[in-house]
Amino acid sequence: MKTGTSAREGIVETVKTIVYALLIAGVFRTLFFQPFWIPSGSMKDTLLIGDFLFVNKMAYGYSRYSCPFSMCPISGRIFASLPERGDVVVFRHPVNGSDYIKRLIGLPGDKIQMKDGVLWINGKPVKLEPAGEFVETYERQGPQGFLPRCANAPVGLGGECVKERYRETLPNGVSHDILDIERNGFLDNTRVFTVPEGHYFFMGDNRDNSQDSRVSQAAGGVGFVPFENLIGRADRVMFSSAGRRMFYFWTWRGDRFFKEIE
Fold first, then answer.
1. How far apart are CA 176 and CA 43, in angstroms?
2. Integer Cα distance of 115 and 171 in angstroms
3. 75-86 pLDDT, tens per residue?
């Protein structure tokens, strides 16, 4: 009898331990990190379709979009710290409410412009150096089956899709790769954007394939993003799936496990 009782007690304790562990993991996820799966190619080659990452929700403090509690502020942030130029950020679209991920380029008060495919910040061009080519297979990518855009188009299925790659260095010294698909593309020459106070200007690293702050919200772009819409900073890719589903482990990319995001 004692043996049976001990066994039952052991099972109960094991179940309690599992429940507590799941609760702790849930609270940890809700408070500190949010999972995010990259659905589009707007941040290539920094982020690929199928990259899975966790967003650091504590990076800029809690807002109504990142805070899990109803007691969080309707506007503004609590325990806020300021984002830095070059951060890769997940934010809530100011109009349609979708979650986006882009690179922070413009801070409040900055003047941002594109001239002949070169980024200008406050009247000065950023440093831009050739960094070879980005080559991928021309095939459908991710659950939505997007086909990549190629600088060497037209490309047949299974062929090499090539984009020119450059190393861009922002005024604060942050360097990252950007991709160029076409010369004098629609977004390669823009007006001067003056970033309002309390707002930020975002761009995708795949410069000719990103509906970002260069595109007005009325035209389906991101426009200027308020500080309170920032959810968190993306720091590291956990794993990456090249297939149509995240958990098709045989399609995981072996070179992207725990890859740091530049």
1. 11
2. 17
3. 566 767 789 999
d(CA 113, CA 214): 9
User: Across-strand partners of 120?
Assistant: 113, 125
Active site residues: 42, 102
Backbone angles phi, psi at 11, to 5 degrees: -65, -45
DSSP SS3 for 191: coil
Regarding the domain delimited by 2-253, which CATH topology (the fold level of the hierarchy) does it fall under? Umud Fragment, subunit A (2.10.109)
pLDDT digits (tens, 9 = 90+) for 207-233: 999 999 999 999 999 999 999 999 999
Q: How far apart are CA 259 and CA 261, in angstroms?
A: 6
Measure the N-to-C terminal CA separation of the chain; round to a whole number of Å. Answer: 61
- What are the residue boundaries of the structural domains of the chain, listed by start? 2-253
- Select the more confidently predicted residue: 56 or 65: 56
Decide: pTM greater than 0.70.
yes
Q: How many CB atoms lie within 10 A of CB 151?
A: 17
Give Rg (Cα) of the chain. 22
The count of other CB atoms within 10 Å of the CB of residue 240 is: 23
Q: Two tokens at 136?
A: 């991928």
Q: Provide the token pair at 250.
A: 């045989």
Distance CA 249, CA 247 (A): 5
Closest CA to 38 of 205, 188, 250, 207: 205
Both tokens of 156, joined, read 């047949």
